[in-house]
Design brief:
The protein is of the alpha/beta class. It is built from eight helices and 13 strands. The strands form two sheets. Strands 8-9-5-4-1-2-3-13-12-11-10 form an eleven-stranded mixed sheet, with helices on both faces. A two-stranded antiparallel ribbon has the order 6-7. The structure holds S-adenosylmethionine (SAM).
């Protein structure tokens, strides 16, 4: 864990982590992966100009944005981005950006669609990050947020049986492990509205996330059942995982040109590219572009 200045919430730093092989590949999570993709196919627009996956990790879900002209793969961890780059390749279409969700480096009207999946549960200040995201999105754009749900059936049962001390019905987030939070659906809705989004549809997923079900049920049946249960998220959001599709109010507006995509995460000044650097009009601070990754985490000294 890196040390941050006191004003900045701590960051769950995945630098150097083996997230792909420790959590996904060969770890029996095909069901979770499949049901997340089902929701994204319902909630994300089929096509568009510029999509961003905030906290994209190794780029697991990027193929769900295949209909977009440009795809920004953004994460705090440079090694995660290197893995994403190795999987997806270096091309004009993919823009790899190392940055912090609390200090985003994107101009206004940068995106017409965005995803934040399996990331907000690491954020001690979700509203601060959601506000940053909102500032980069054009009017009429779509934002899909996934979060870990504290109001899930297992937590409700454990609380009723007094096997869990925290109350799943109260709205405040529960930090069950350092920098790992479960959120109440009503709380997350309030945060989205406070950040300037208009929440529309909600889906509940991973209803069958139990070792027993995985042992006795075929994957295809589990996914089909989950698909049937997902719409319950609107009225009965009791699954471990919730997705919310939100819009930015207003008619769709034109996106900023690619050359004006970045702003300085410290001063907000527009950045222009000069060789392998991004430079603001005042000249400082300057930011590096290394091996195809825009590094907007720390300025060059
Ligand atoms: C559990 S992984 C999820 C990756 C991907 N979204 C997925 O669903 O496969 C969480 C990711 O969030 C990133 N992350 C955590 N805090 C962040 C922050 N403050 N800014 C940007 N990325 C962050 C981590 O680096 C990590 O790659």
């Amino acid at each position: 864990m890196t040390q941050q200045p006191p004003s900045q919430p701590a960051i769950c730093d995945y630098e150097g982590s083996a997230y792909r092989t420790d959590f996904w590949e060969g770890k029996g999570r095909e069901y979770e992966d499949a049901v997340e993709r089902l929701v994204l196919r319902r909630f994300l627009p089929r096509s568009g100009k510029r999509y961003v996956d905030f906290g994209a990790g190794f780029g697991r879900l990027i193929d769900e944005a295949a209909g977009f002209e440009e795809i920004v793969v953004m994460d705090y961890s440079r090694t995660m981005l290197q893995e994403a780059q190795a999987r997806l390749g270096r091309s004009e279409r993919f823009i790899y950006v190392a940055a912090d969700l609390y200090k985003l480096p994107f101009a206004a009207n940068a995106f017409d669609a965005a995803l934040l999946c399996r990331v907000v549960h690491h954020l001690a200040d979700p509203l601060a990050a959601l506000r940053q995201i909102r500032q980069s999105m054009a009017s009429g754009s779509t934002f899909v947020l996934e979060f870990a749900n504290k109001l899930n059936l297992k937590a409700i049962l454990r609380y009723a049986l007094r096997r869990q001390t925290w109350n799943p019905y109260t709205h405040e987030p529960i930090e069950f492990v350092r920098l790992n939070f479960d959120f109440h659906p009503a709380y997350m809705r309030e945060q989205l509205v406070a950040a300037g989004f208009t929440p529309r549809r909600r889906a509940a997923t991973s209803w069958l996330r139990l070792g027993l079900f995985k042992r006795i049920l075929p994957l295809r049946l589990m996914v089909a059942l989950d698909r049937l249960l997902q719409p319950l998220g609107g009225l009965f959001p009791y699954a471990p995982q919730i997705f919310v599709e939100s819009r930015v109010a207003g008619a769709p507006s034109a996106l900023v040109e690619r050359e004006r995509l970045f702003k300085c995460p410290l001063t907000g000044a527009p950045l222009r590219r000069e060789s392998d650097l991004l430079i603001s009009a005042e000249g400082n601070p300057r930011w590096a572009i290394r091996d195809g990754i825009y590094d907007l985490k720390e300025p060059l000294t």
